[in-house]
Prior knowledge:
The chain is 35% helix and 10% strand. It is α+β, with helices and mostly antiparallel strands and 98 residues long. Strands 1-2 form a two-stranded parallel ribbon. It starts with 14 loop residues before the first helix and ends with a helix.
Amino acid sequence: MNSQTRKATPTRHEHPRTACILAHVTRDDPPVLLAFPKVEPLPATNAGSAIHHAMFGMKVKEKADAAGATCVLRIKDQKPGVDRPKPEAFLLKQWTGN
């Protein structure tokens, strides 16, 4: 493989950005259901809470909406009246169109 055909290796500063879903959302992505139990306070108390935070799901939904991709955000403790589809209903809708 010569230098012209080899892909550039991301630098250590670029790598986290390329590993993030936000860098890869496109219109042709399959439908996604993101489910969270509640919105935790920020800043997150640990790394696990940070990466699985509902706020990250909200950012993914914003990016998907802007790209024209289907992304449904389900947060169990949302206000009444906000659509919170159950995973089974989401899958049936995607498979059957109903």
